[in-house]
Amino acid sequence: MNCLIVDDDEMSRKVLKHFIEKTPPLILRQDCRNALDGLDAVKSERNIDLIFLDVQMSDMSGLEFIRTLNNSNIGIILTTSKPDYAVEAFELNVLDYLLKPIEYPRFIKAVHKATDLISKIRMDVEHYGNGLFIKNEGKLVKLKYSDILYVEAMADYVMLHTHNAKKFIIHSTMKGIERKLLSSKQFVRLHRSFIANAEHIDYMQEMTAVVQEKVLPIGRLYKSEVYRRLNVL
């Protein structure tokens, strides 16, 4: 699993680097001392699976970094000396939240959680061009992106609602399915519990989006990105 460290504290970077080096299957690709270098590293490497990201940095906060990155194919583990950002962090679907000073057993627990989620994503859902295959009743069912109306979170599962009123439940997190769907560019994350197909959004009003008469909430933290993605004037 290809990793990136983004942290403006030298000692924190050294600790994370040491932990990564002694933890297979992690591979450290770059060690970045600020958020801007981190964004450049993501562009240059193009195969980053996981980022260990500091919350409080001088040039850009870790939360701002996540919103700027706008890449749900990369898992994020936040690191910070303060627990104050936990709620907002999990609304942005980070995989875990490590408090400094980070101890190796807690680091390992976060890594295992991340690798488990990523493996579930790869196992339950596979791309095939303009859609994906999902496991359903012992079969791999082909589902076109255009047929998916929206996705709804259900604890450790997600439900895919389709245009013909069929519903598919798969064992995945919202972060996992988001990694697959948002790469198609036609899906937009509305809320921590909902992803919508932009082609099926009939209209938006205040903090809601309507998809075939179903009213979906738009989360406060997602509103600006939703409006940007949908080219709202």
Commentary on this structure:
With 233 residues, the chain is α/β, with parallel strands linked by helices. 31% of the residues lie in helices and 34% in strands. The chain has helices at residues 10-21, 35-45, 62-69, 86-91, 104-124, 174-181, 223-229, and strands at 2-6, 27-32, 50-54, 75-80, 96-99, 125-127, 131-136, 139-144, 148-154, 157-162, 167-170, 187-191, 194-197, 201-205, 208-211, 214-217. Strand 6 (125-127) and strand 7 form a beta hairpin. Helix 5 crosses helix 6 (174-181). The protein is globular, with a radius of gyration of 18 Å. The relative contact order is 0.10. The mean pLDDT is 87.
Topology:
Blueprint: E1 2-6, H1 10-21, E2 27-32, H2 35-45, E3 50-54, H3 62-69, E4 75-80, H4 86-91, E5 96-99, H5 104-124, E6 125-127, E7 131-136, E8 139-144, E9 148-154, E10 157-162, E11 167-170, H6 174-181, E12 187-191, E13 194-197, E14 201-205, E15 208-211, E16 214-217, H7 223-229
Parallel strand pairs: 1-2, 1-3, 3-4, 4-5
Antiparallel strand pairs: 6-7, 7-8, 9-10, 9-13, 10-11, 12-13, 14-15, 15-16
Helix pairs in contact: 5-6
- Topology pattern, helix = H, strand = E: EHEHEHEHEHEEEEEEHEEEEEH
**Which fold name is given in CATH as the topology of the largest domain?**
Rossmann fold
CATH top-level class of the largest domain: Alpha Beta
The total of helices stands at 7
Q: Which bin fits the share of residues in helices?
A: 25-40%
Mean pLDDT: 87
Task: Give the N-to-C terminal Cα separation.
Answer: 40 Å
Number of strands: 16
Please give the CATH architecture of the largest domain.
Answer: 3-Layer(aba) Sandwich
Q: Tell me, what's the shape?
A: globular
Indicate the structural class: alpha/beta
Neighbour order of strands in the largest sheet: 2-1-3-4-5
Unreliable stretches (pLDDT < 50, length at least 5) are: none
Q: What is Rg?
A: 18 Å
SS strand fraction? 25-35%
| Domain count | 2
Please outline the major beta sheet: 5 strands, parallel
CATH H-level homologous superfamily name of the largest domain: Response regulator
